[in-house]
Design goal:
Blueprint: H1 2-35, E1 39-46, E2 49-60, E3 65-66, E4 73-74, H2 79-92, H3 118-122, H4 145-153, H5 169-183, H6 187-199, E5 205-206, E6 220-223, E7 226-229, H7 235-238, E8 245-247, H8 249-258, H9 267-273, E9 292-293, E10 298-300, E11 307-314, E12 318-325, E13 330-336, H10 343-354, H11 372-387, H12 397-407, H13 417-422, E14 424-434, E15 441-442, E16 445-446, E17 449-457, E18 461-468, E19 474-481
Antiparallel strand pairs: 1-2, 1-13, 2-3, 4-8, 5-8, 6-7, 9-10, 10-11, 11-12, 12-13, 14-17, 15-16, 17-18, 18-19
């Protein structure tokens, strides 16, 4: 009798797991179809154990090669977390200090770069211009390390080091040069010896265009309504410390597990990587994507839940994402072979399937709007942005100070507000969440409510979440689109 009862209960749990797995698989395949993603690798980790791992699609369209556990994807800017890890290992070894000037290790930079420390490169407060967005290195050419230093140093800084924050992929390219200068080894070799091999990450390595690498995925872009091969980038920049690694979802899960232990990093190093950086004036270094800069990571609150994450996409045809929901001990890893496939919304949706508390706005059942006046004011604010006459009275001081910088003059989701509002079909309330007890902060202001709205245009469906103070001042806006 008891044995039968035990078997019955076990079957119930198995069936529940299968239903959940089917839900995830169906959702992923639907999103791949809507977003024209040829291949996707998924790993979901809970309390250090993989609870879902799946491969979808083809890694090479021309050869119709299916994705397997061994298929290796380029991870673009997700490389930065490994570069930060390598720097922390050198600090643990006593080979450098995070507060050393970078000119201690790199010669040929102008005097204005003397004030840049290793830490400032790590947390994007250096002021170094981004070579992808702000100046151009010829990606079809190879460079020596010294040539890179000279071309980077020819650019003025965006701001005095440590006094502001702005994402700079160039900073991580320079960190890779520092690693090579100190160790006397290629960047990828140092990572292999100190991180990949100790963790058993046998399917992770630096990109090499000349070598035959079994199970290498091909990259694609979606252009003029069809998939095309990703763009060519020469070896120097393709394999640099800002974007130069390739891996698998299962290997990334090993990396994630190591970040919960002291196997590679000391507690001091881990705390440094996962603590929001601060500017010289003591304020938090806020990034361009609604989160704070750590060292190689973005530190976010994600609707009141602590989230440590990073994404990476590049013109070679890849987009990757890792999101670590710290309190829930849940990690979602997604690798794709289509540039700008935006896997972070896919990953957030999957997290919400495994833990309802993490559901993203498009997964929520719309609630009755009990504060129509507030909703109308928020809509009017967006209209003021679209008209060019921003209603700054509705904004907090911190958001007002940043808005012209990161919203309209730089490539972020907020730059899309004018076009979205000019093409508006409907603006509807989804839900509000009180986060006072979670002590959510945005740009120096305590947040009371997170209020989400569905905005439909002729082109897309968008979801806006407003970070509101107790006085309903707007402290930030998070925007994403999701194919329905």
């Amino acid at each position: 009798m008891y044995r039968l009862l035990f078997v019955f209960i076990a079957l119930l749990f198995c069936n529940a797991a299968l239903v959940q797995a089917d839900e995830v698989d169906d959702y992923v395949r639907l999103q791949m179809q809507k977003r024209s993603i040829p291949a996707l690798q998924l790993a979901v980790v809970h309390k250090g154990k993989i609870i879902k791992s799946q491969n979808y699609g083809v890694s090479n369209i021309e050869l119709n090669a299916p994705v397997t556990d061994d298929t290796m994807f380029e991870i673009a800017s997700n490389t930065k977390q490994f570069t930060a890890g390598a720097i922390m290992l050198l600090a643990q070894d006593g080979k450098l200090n995070l507060d050393d000037s970078i000119t201690k290790y790199l010669s040929g930079l102008p005097p204005t770069y003397n004030a840049i420390t290793v830490r400032y490169l790590l947390n994007h407060t250096s002021g170094v211009k981004d070579y992808i967005e702000e100046f151009e290195l010829n990606r079809r050419l190879d460079y020596t390390n010294q040539e890179l230093i000279e071309r980077i140093g020819a650019n003025e800084l965006n701001f005095p080091p440590g006094e502001n924050a702005r994402y700079s992929t160039t900073g991580y390219l320079l960190l890779g040069l520092i690693i090579e200068q100190i160790t006397g080894k290629p960047y990828g070799e140092f990572l292999r010896e100190r991180i990949f091999e100790p963790l058993g990450m046998n399917r992770t390595r630096a990109i090499n265009l000349a070598e035959i690498i079994p199970n290498r995925a091909s990259g694609y872009k979606f252009e003029n309504g069809i998939l095309r091969n990703g763009r060519y980038v020469a070896q120097t920049l393709r394999a640099s410390a800002d974007i130069g690694l390739m891996t698998t979802a299962l290997d990334t899960a090993k990396w994630d597990a190591a970040l919960n232990t002291n196997k590679i990093f000391t507690r001091v190093s881990l705390d440094a990587m996962f603590t929001p950086a601060r500017l010289k004036n003591g304020s938090i270094a806020y990034n361009d994507w609604n989160a704070n800069f750590g060292l190689g990571w973005f530190i976010d609150d994600y609707f009141g839940h602590r989230n440590i994450n990073h994404g990476g996409t590049f013109i070679t045809g890849f987009h990757a994402e890792i999101s670590r929901y710290v309190d829930e001990k849940l990690t979602v890893i997604i690798l794709t072979n289509r540039v700008q496939s935006y896997p972070y919304t896919i990953g957030m949706s999957i997290a919400g399937m495994f833990n309802p508390a993490l559901r993203i706005p498009h997964q929520l059942e719309p609630q009755p709007d009990v504060n129509l006046q507030r909703s109308q004011k928020l809509k009017q604010f967006l209209s003021s942005v679209a008209s060019g006459a921003i209603d700054s009275a509705q904004m907090t001081e911190g958001f007002r100070a940043r808005f012209s910088y990161d919203a309209l003059d730089y490539t972020t989701s907020k730059s899309e507000i004018p076009a979205i509002m000019k093409d508006l079909k409907s603006f509807s309330f989804v839900a509000c969440k009180n986060v006072e007890t979670r002590k959510v902060e945005r740009i120096g202001t305590q947040i009371k409510n997170l209020c989400s709205y569905k905005i439909v245009t002729r082109q897309k469906t968008h979801f806006f979440t407003f970070y509101l103070t107790a006085q309903d001042k707007i402290a930030d806006i998070w925007i994403y689109s999701h194919p329905e």
